[in-house]
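TA notes, week 10

Several of you asked for a full example with nothing omitted. So below is the full record: structure tokens for the whole chain, then the designed sequence directly under it. When grading your own attempts, check the secondary structure regions first.
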């Protein structure tokens, strides 16, 4: 009987030990599960949504053009004797570009000058004949008064005086002078000069070739200033003013934008494009901007005042909607938003965000709705 009691006591001790071990294992498992369920907060940066003004920037692509571009066309046809410039040369107004041959014109000038001299010499003889005819007419009038000659003889004397009028000779002199002047003008036209100060961008003839009024022999551009023309649609044109400053990016020259000035705003739309041409001027003293380069114009087309504005980086595209994450009670909360105009850096929020909301501007691409977050940097 005593042995039976000892056996029962032994099994009871074993049962207690097993229960203690099982309870310990259960508590350890529960602790491990609790630790696994803990999620560390995601660090984010925030910026408070503010009310302010924003100007919409519309980017337009255009081609750079020289402010002044002249195709030099000869007034006179002839053989090229000398080409005095090359492409890339800087020239000033009046500088000789091309010289045409003058040999034939010089010979014609000598002939015309000889004709002029002959006409001028004839004027002296004509004046002498006029004096003789006048004296003869006065004598015949006296004789007619005395009855010594007939009326017919008097009329003949008058006719002789009228025929001696030097106006005929004067007309011949004027004609000869006009011929001389015309040839001298043609000689001047054999010297083809630069009509503007600028840079030679094309030379289309060589010495020995024929040039004529049908083809430009050279092209000169003034690149001290360059122009860019863009077409603005009618709903924005009244927001564009002459004198406004415009950012113009020409990637072929540098990454930083140039500052241009609006020179002209057309009062009527182009009939083909139905847009209003706007011309922008850029200073280009170093000639680093070349005609024909592509430019991107950032044109301010409209402005809104007193609207909710946030950085564009805060906006998340979620397919069918756009959203912005804000911090509420240390959690990331997704807000569906309706957006308005933007200036390339900031954007107007029409609905979904209120002034004072803590907008996530860093970490917004890795959080999801309801994630715990901790604000690090930005505006807490």
């Amino acid at each position: 009987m005593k042995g039976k009691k000892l056996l029962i006591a032994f099994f009871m001790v074993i049962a207690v030990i097993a229960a203690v071990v099982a309870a310990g294992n259960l508590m350890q498992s529960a602790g491990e599960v609790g630790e696994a369920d803990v999620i560390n907060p995601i660090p984010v940066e925030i910026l408070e949504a503010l009310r302010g003004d924003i100007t919409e920037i519309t980017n337009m692509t255009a081609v750079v053009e020289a402010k002044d571009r002249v195709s030099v066309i000869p007034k006179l046809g002839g053989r090229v004797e000398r080409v005095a410039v090359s492409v890339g040369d800087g020239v000033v107004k009046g500088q000789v570009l091309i010289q045409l041959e003058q040999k034939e014109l010089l010979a014609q000038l000598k002939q015309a000058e000889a004709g002029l001299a002959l006409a001028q010499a004839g004027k002296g003889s004509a004046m002498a004949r006029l004096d003789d005819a006048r004296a003869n007419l006065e004598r015949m009038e006296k004789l007619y008064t005395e009855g010594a000659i007939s009326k017919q003889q008097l009329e003949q004397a008058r006719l002789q005086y009228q025929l001696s009028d030097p106006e005929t000779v004067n007309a011949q002199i004027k004609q000869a002078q006009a011929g001389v002047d015309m040839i001298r003008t043609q000689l001047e036209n054999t010297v083809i000069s630069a009509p503007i100060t600028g840079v030679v961008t094309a030379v289309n003839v060589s010495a020995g070739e024929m040039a004529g009024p049908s083809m430009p022999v050279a092209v000169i551009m003034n690149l001290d200033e360059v122009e860019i023309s863009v077409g603005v649609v009618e709903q924005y044109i009244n927001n564009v003013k002459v004198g406004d400053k415009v950012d113009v990016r020409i990637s072929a020259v540098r990454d930083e934008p140039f500052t241009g000035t609006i020179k002209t705003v057309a009062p009527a739309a182009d009939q083909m494009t139905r847009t209003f041409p706007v011309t922008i001027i850029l200073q280009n003293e170093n000639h680093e901007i070349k005609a024909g380069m592509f430019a991107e114009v950032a044109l301010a087309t409209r402005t809104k005042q007193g609207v909710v504005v946030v950085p564009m980086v805060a906006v998340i595209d979620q397919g069918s909607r756009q959203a912005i994450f804000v911090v509420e009670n240390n959690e990331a909360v997704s807000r569906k938003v309706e957006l308005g105009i933007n200036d390339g850096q900031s954007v107007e929020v029409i609905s979904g965000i209120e002034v004072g909301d803590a907008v996530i501007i860093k970490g917004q691409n890795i959080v999801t709705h309801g994630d715990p977050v901790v604000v690090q940097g930005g505006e807490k």
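The first strand starts at residue 42 and ends at 48. Use that as a sanity check on your answer.
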